[in-house]
Amino acid sequence: MKQGRQRAVASFSSLVWRANKLIPAGKVATYGQLAVSIGCPDAARAVGNALNKNPFAPQAPCHRVVRSDGGVGGFAGGQKVKIKLLKNEGVKIINQKIDLSRFLFQF
DNA sequence: ACGGTGACGCTCA
DNA sequence: TTGAGCGCCACCG
Predict the structure, then answer these.
(1) What is the pLDDT of residues A79-90, one digit of tens each?
(2) Within chain A, what is the greatest distance between any pair of CA atoms?
(3) Is residue A68 within 8 Å of A32, Cβ to Cβ?
(4) Residue A58: what are its φ and ψ, rounded to 5°?
(5) In the complex, which nucleotide's C1' lies nearest to the CA atom of residue A42?
């Protein structure tokens, strides 16, 4: 019976989407951090792939996932849209760079 | 089963 | 500091 208990092994993408939803508004997480959270510290690339194919986009907060270097990263609807969404939530972006020291969310 | 692709990350010059 | 190259993993044809 696998009811009531979270599947230990779900599709990689599923884990990514789940963790992505945990990110609160006004905060951001890096692809790498997200990868670590799901158990694959070196799968940052795969994380981006999963978010890109995210089935419940653009409703999901996939725009809260940024690059480890503070870069905005990519977005299925357009990078500038992603920036706008983040700024709308209170995340200040300067020169397309995010201050991870202030807005990085820790799982 | 195999190879190419991609919303990344780190190191080196 | 900025730019370029290599390595990482998972998904699709």
Answers:
(1) 999 999 999 999
(2) 51
(3) yes
(4) -90, 15
(5) C8
Report how far residue A37's alpha carbon sits from residue A16's, in angstroms, rounded to the nearest whole number: 9
The torsion angle over the Cα atoms of residues A50, A46, A11 and A86, rounded to 10 degrees, is -40
Q: What is the pTM of this model?
A: 0.89
Q: What is the mean pLDDT of residues A73-97?
A: 93
Is the C-beta of residue A55 closer than 7 Å to nucleic acid chain C? no
- A14 C-beta less than 7 Å away from strand B: no
Measure, in angstroms, how far nucleotide B13 C1' is from residue A94 CA: 28
Write A77-82 long-range contacts (CB < 8 A, 24+).
none
Amino acid, single-letter form, for residue A37: S
